[in-house]
TrEMBL record:
UniProt keyword Metal-binding, yes or no: no
Full protein name: O-antigen ligase-related domain-containing protein
Classification via InterPro entries: O-antigen_ligase-rel_domated (IPR007016), WaaL-like (IPR051533)
Membrane-related topology note: Multi-pass membrane protein
Location of the O-antigen ligase-related domain: 187-341
Length: 416
């Protein structure tokens, strides 16, 4: 019993890891809403395991050159926080830097991915469909009527992101197949969209619009785009009308937004949108004071609370600044913002420039879609900096780029 475990941990045969890859990406990308922070444990364990074997030389790091650039982008995100924390040291800054270590695990996770690309895509798509179809009854069963749903994610905004990831994968699967199974994937996409709407996270509703538009314009002639766009708009309008009639959450959140904007016009900033405006005002002043390296990761929370107290007579304390650019600038300044831009841009440019078969085209759509979903989350909320967000992001970029590039060559293993 012990010998197989030791062999698996210290003398693994990486060429046989195809089935493990299928399970790993299916669990992390599709089941996070059901198992919560367990996905971060899975990703961290995979990153530590693979990085250990990279360090010992048993696993060789020989990916296509664009993948190296993506890894350097992830490393830059870690280094930016490390430099800022070194300049503005504190206990919380050190803790935040340690929590960013999984970004360095991208190299190991990609190196250990050996599955057939088409099989990997198919497995994740089918798991996403099953998860989406199950999510609605589970959500309705476990969520009190007067609460925004969270499921196992522990936060309604996190659930919104996870559901939108499922929506992205199932929309792509439905269009890619374009056969009778497309109806199953479309039904799954509708379920995922319904969960996103029920979460009440209004910023993610934008992603529900952008994902099918992205799918429509990708790899299609202009004539099909022109004819398909009005049909897509009409379909979305019908969906919004149905939601308004059938979903109390949709109607309630829209009414709240309207009433809050009216209150803001009258000078009342006590609502959730008003709180964000106060944070933005305080954050803008803070950024101007330390634009290069920010205040150190984690330190910005106290700075925002102190500055909002100074400006508005009430301190507002959140774990982030409710906007990804502002949050990064406060954490690590322009250095951090450049690192974030690299993490967003480099994977898309790398995938766009690569020659692609059908599986590669699906991967390109997914990497564009994953980053779009995360940017929507970061518009007025959190993009990165939450264990589930970070784990799913690392895995999603690794998965989608693997569909585009594969291994580039045969798996290399030393020390047998």
């Amino acid at each position: 019993m012990i010998r197989p475990v030791i062999d698996f941990l210290f003398r693994p045969q990486f060429e046989s890891y195809g089935r493990i890859n299928l399970a790993f990406y299916s669990i992390v990308l599709c089941l996070a809403a059901f198992i919560g922070s367990t996905v971060s444990v899975v990703v961290i364990a995979g990153a530590v395991f693979s990085s250990f074997h990279l360090g010992t030389g048993r696993l060789k790091w020989s990916p296509p050159e664009p993948i190296r650039l993506v890894f350097f982008a992830f490393a830059g995100l870690f280094v930016a926080d490390l430099v800022s924390a070194a300049v503005h040291p504190s206990g919380i800054a050190a803790k935040e830097v340690i929590e960013n270590l999984p970004f360095l695990g991208f190299a190991g996770l990609y190196a250990i991915t050996v599955a057939d690309r088409a099989q990997l895509l198919d497995a994740v798509e089918k798991t996403a469909a099953i998860a989406s179809l199950l999510a609605v009854p589970v959500l309705l069963a476990v969520t009190p009527a007067d609460h925004r749903p969270e499921m196992a994610s522990g936060n309604s905004s996190v659930l919104a992101l996870l559901a939108t990831v499922l929506y992205l994968v199932t929309i792509g699967a439905a269009d890619r197949r374009w056969n009778r199974w497309s109806f199953v994937f479309l039904a799954a996409a509708l379920c995922a969209a319904f969960v996103t709407v029920l979460s009440g996270s209004r910023a993610m509703w934008l992603a529900l619009v952008l994902v099918p538009v992205l799918r429509l314009v990708m790899y299609r002639p202009l004539r099909r785009i022109v004819t398909g766009l009005p049909a897509l708009v009409a379909l979305m309008a019908c969906g919004a009308a149905l939601l308004a009639l059938s979903s109390q959450v949709f109607d309630q959140r829209m009414q709240e937004a309207v009433s809050e904007f009216q209150a803001i016009e009258e000078g009342d900033l006590s609502g959730s949108i008003g709180q964000r405006l106060r944070i933005y005002s305080a954050g803008y002043e803070l950024v101007l004071e330390r634009p290069l390296l920010g205040y150190g990761p984690g330190n910005e929370r106290k700075e925002i609370a102190d500055r909002t107290l100074e400006l508005f007579g009430e301190g507002i304390s959140f774990s982030h600044a409710h906007n990804v650019a502002l949050s990064v600038m406060l954490r690590s300044g322009l250095l951090g913002l450049l690192a974030l831009l690299a993490v967003v841009i480099v994977p898309i440019v790398a995938a766009a420039r690569a020659p692609k078969d059908d599986t590669g085209k699906a991967g390109f759509f997914l990497v564009c879609g994953f980053i779009t979903v995360y940017l929507c989350s970061g518009l007025v909320g959190l993009m990165l900096g939450h264990d589930i967000h970070d784990a799913v992001f690392i895995a999603s970029v690794c998965f989608s780029l693997y569909l585009v590039f594969g291994r580039g060559d045969a798996p290399q293993q030393a020390g047998r």
